[in-house]
Amino acid sequence: MSSAHITFDTTGDKIARRVRKMRPSAVRNLFAAATRDDVISLSGGMPAVSLLPVEDVRRATLAAIETERARAVSLQYGPTDGLVGLRAVLADMMRDLGIRVKPEQLLVTSGAQQALTLIAEAFIDPGDIIITEGPTYLGALQAFSAFEPDVRAIPFDDEGMRMDLLEAELKRIGKNNPRLKFCYTIPNFQNPGGVTMTAERRRRLLELAAEYNFMVVEDDPYGRLRYDGGHQVPLKAMDDSVIYLGTISKMLGPGLRTGWVAAPEAVLARINLVKQGADLCGSAFDQLIVQHYFADIPWQRTLQKFIGVYKERRDTMLAALEEFFPPEARWTHPEGGMFLWITLPDYMDTDSMLAEALEAGVTYVPGNSFFPDGVTGKNSMRVNFSFETPESITEAVRRLAGVIEERLELYRVFINAGALPGYGKEAVMAENERENWDEVIVASEENEEAVMQSHDGDAAQIEIAEQKVAEAQEEAAE
What we know:
Blueprint: H1 17-20, H2 26-34, E1 40-41, H3 54-63, H4 68-74, H5 84-95, E2 106-109, H6 111-123, E3 129-134, H7 138-145, E4 150-157, E5 160-161, H8 163-173, E6 180-185, H9 199-212, E7 215-219, H10 235-238, E8 243-247, E9 259-262, H11 265-279, H12 284-296, H13 299-324, E10 330-331, E11 339-343, H14 350-360, E12 362-363, E13 365-366, E14 380-384, H15 390-416, H16 425-432, H17 444-454, H18 459-477
Parallel strand pairs: 1-12, 3-4, 3-6, 6-7, 7-8
Antiparallel strand pairs: 2-9, 4-5, 8-9, 10-11, 11-14, 13-14
């Protein structure tokens, strides 16, 4: 007799409405698959912690526990806004970026991710308007979504968020709209896009914030990881009212859950109140390790090692994309950070293609994960270059290119037959010497249905689709 025990969830009608609407993280869902030996992961944003000097980490850790005085701090409850010594160290580090703040203008959090949730809880009511880049960091969308905002995603180009599109959206929202709360931006090597906002656009963003009365939240996890070009002045250095988020995850390690918020003291007071209800205080043990690492260890030397290795891996990925990817694809060229954004023709679906990529032994994050509607961006993907070795990156891109090429091959048949309206018009017209594109599109409804059937990748459906395309070609020839 089977001893299997079946349990049923009896809490379904008790779950909060806001939780029902929350989407799981695509990166978290991929984590198990990405750790398989046969899979090369381009999905997570993991730093290469193996580059950290073990002795430096050991020294900082021992300093947090080796004396009775240290243990009295590291193993005890601490202040909600973080250890005073750590806040002083972080304030000194921010001066390197041109940001002048006092320790009392900083609040330490359990990673910058917690900071996003605290800001959302402190300022967002259901229906409030939040502006982000589109696409944007999926962890921020998760943090915000629990509080049911109306998220407006503004597209970016190679110079960062499009200020013309932002201004057009703000005109629709209206000046001094109490529902408009803040704009969340990652101006340096944006996640997932890899692009950097220019100085001109940074100034314009701050001008619009003053004109339309909204706060600016500047998330800067990658700002020190620059490989090309010159330093960009942070928004916080240009305007003290900016809410700045920092983290040690990319300079030391994400396992030491330590981030911070730099903001006007009135803003910090509200965030502090929310944090008291969340965790009372962060890990004093983690904070003291971080404090000693950045105060007593030559950490800049290790940071330069990270920069050198990541630059090589970025260059390897860009070279592999040029070598293996099809001409229909395009991608960003980040000057730093950990990610780049790949865009395929808009009839492609990287969400459904992920299963094929996993079968080929490579992962990425589908682009729709980075948009608030969960639909936009399905023809795009984010790939990471910081974690895998150059050899693995090259192989991963080769595998991924093979998966993409296999799908594109069928679509090219449709395009060449004129069965995919809106694509390849000029090429088909030239080939058939026709003046009217309408003559090429034959039985368009049947052809579109065939294209939709091909999405599932079923052999029988593909055969039907190809038959319909062949019929369309014959009718067009007549």
